[in-house]
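Structure representation.

___
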Amino acid sequence: MNHHELAIGAIALWSVPQQQLTGWWAVVQHIHIPYIPGYLAFREMPPLLNALKLCPVRPDLLMVDGQGIAHPRHAGIAAHLGVELDLPTIGCAKKILIGTPSQPLQPQRGSLAWLNIDGQIKGALLRTRTHVQPVVVSIGHRITLPEAICWVLHTARQYRLPEPLRHAHHIANLVKQELKIRHQPPLGNFSRHPFVLRKPYPNDWEEDVLYIASSGPWENPTHSPNPG
């Protein structure tokens, strides 16, 4: 594997009462583990954990783009993160990794089918928008499946993905675009976007971390990247 392969970890802090983005953080770092289906956590957890270090508050709930216990070993990346941080955690994936839906899914928003794995319900196929592909919801840690389903529906008001994940995807894509444009360090300024990739302080971060970026602890959400 190429030692210089990079990963981007991005998190978005979503306020449920305000229904808006209140902050975001991203990390670019080297990764040393190749992609192996079913072992995503070992590859992608380090940049996510480092991005979470930048967040000035402890979240009440984590929503992760990946599987929780709806996984061949019942331990997807959402389960790993939840246990590591001891936080309520939801896995919200874009496709089924393992399991069989209990019934055909109806086209309306809110329709669901339980996901059976080895004769047990380990997740749910949930349609967050009418006539749009569903997401796979599963327990990560310290939450029930009905609670996880409710939170995903509550935060997925207009789009297929819940708002925290949608914003985190957008932030990661902006960083990825800049890395592709610049090809290699130094990346130059981020004048096209309302944030700057900067070098971390050497004594505060492991050597694999190349860049960090943030909106600021509590920046006005109107100044944060907006997926539109």
Q: What stands out?
A: Residues 163-182 form the longest helix (20 residues). Residues 6-214 form a domain with the archaeoglobus fulgidus dsm 4304 fold fold (CATH 3.30.2170.10).
